[in-house]
Amino acid sequence: MQAKDPRLPHRAEVYLMLARAWQAPMHQAQFEAIRDWLAEDLAAAASEAGYPESASLAPLAAAVAQHAQDHSGLLRGYSELFLIPPTRVHLNAGVYLDRALMGAHTIELLEWHQRHGVERRDDFHNTPDHLAALLEFAALLADRAAGAATAGRDDEAQAAIDTLRGLLGRHLAPWMGDLVAALGREAELGEPSRRVYAALGGVLRDVVADDLAWLWADASGPAGVPAGPREVPPPVADGHSADGLRAMIEHLEAAGLDASHLRARLAA
Q1: 29-38, 78-87, 91-100, 209-218 — which is least confidently predicted?
Q2: What are φ and ψ of residue 101, in 5° steps?
Q3: What radius of gyration do the chain's Cα atoms show?
Q4: Residue 25 resides in a domain
């Protein structure tokens, strides 16, 4: 069982670092973490986690050194890519997997969150399919699996590993190619700090690919990452649980969005 592998807590640490790096660098502390520590800490954690040496880490270190030395510049680059309409690069999985926000894959994520006792923080104002949220969930699952395995709770550990495998295979790996390609196209335009996120995309792609192959190593079914960004697993069935729909309604309405279409489905 991978949950008993001593590398797993370090892989959880890598996912948490990546999750924080994909959030908007609004505050000085976030900027300083990227400027001063991100490349070095990712390399150290990746080594401890047993990842193969990634060719993407050197470009990230170079991009940070050249283009992430000014807080306002880094924030401009992030905003140009991900925030200012029309959005140049999307960080929500649903845009790639469902061609829509709050679609079937996002409902599935909400159900998985509920199953594992995950609740939205009051200061998080995006949907659960946002890249930073997906990576935080991956970190949580990896950490819980390792902790449960150490405590001898093998069923709990296996459930977390199974969900992590599904998270990577259904919600992350299928659109990594599209994300990296989009970041590459935009890297040479506008604010030079865009290149930091293009390089970070390469690191993320390598981490997801290696973890998915590793998690499939002793599992039934095909090994490895889907061959191309368009090889997307079919959407989950429309027969979602009432609890899952209620969670989605709550999430939408908390964000000030209309959820009447979901309330109609719940009442049907």
Answers
A1: 209-218
A2: -85, 150
A3: 18
A4: yes
**Is residue 49 within 8 Å of residue 10, measured between CB atoms?**
yes
Condensed to tens digits (0 to 9), the pLDDT of residues 80-100 reads 999 998 899 999 999 998 887
Is residue 254 assigned to a domain? no
Provide the domain count of the chain.
1
Rounded to an integer, what is the distance from CA 5 to the centroid of its chain? Answer: 22
Tokens 């709050």 found at: 102
40 is in which domain, residue-wise? 2-91+130-232
Token output for 264: 């109609």
State how far the Cα of 43 lies from the Cα of 37, in Å rounded to an integer: 10
- Whether 259 and 253 have beta carbons less than 8 Å apart is answered as yes
Domain presence at residue 123: no
Rounded-to-integer distance, Cα 30 and Cα 35, Å: 9
In this structure, are residues 14 and 47 in contact, taking their beta carbons and an 8 Å threshold? no
Output the domain CATH number for residue 190.
Answer: 1.10.3480
Give the Cα separation of 181 and 227 in Å (integer): 15
User: Which amino acid belongs to residue 37?
Assistant: W
User: What pTM does this model have?
Assistant: 0.79
